[in-house]
Task: structure prediction
Amino acid sequence: KSCEESKKVLTTVEKTSICCQSFYNQQDFIESISRSKFEEINQNLFESAMNPIRQVLNDSNISKNKITNIVLMGGSSRIKIIQDKIAKLLPGIQIISVNPDTSSAYGAALYAAAIKNKNFVLNDALAYSLGYAKDNSNRISLLQKNMAFPIKKL
Result:
């Protein structure tokens, strides 16, 4: 809990403390950590956080220069180094960080804008293939991964 709180604090300050009461043998653990040390310790995790973005770019066949905005949700999206890595991967992009408590409302607002404003394009695609198992060895895929939706009935 203390580490999570320190991670949040480091998004706005350069240094904070991690405090855990009765950490070991009734001894408290108190240690200060800088943002640069936090980034150094977690460098491989921050780099791996870019993999889903690269995968989406690859799967969608959309060129980087066609993307104007990216919406980030969750606590880690506020970490400056993650924002910097995204900016480096997608130069000129506007990064929007959304509070997870309001993310559903933000998504609904995007859909409303897409419906009202014909110049606004919002593309949805299936994250996974959907289908059924005919038996233990045969699986039938009805909707393919990355298929656009909503899907018109033929």
In short: Strands lie at 15-24, 27-34, 69-73, 94-98, 124-125, 130-133, 139-143, 148-149. The chain has six helices and eight strands. The chain has a mean pLDDT of 82.
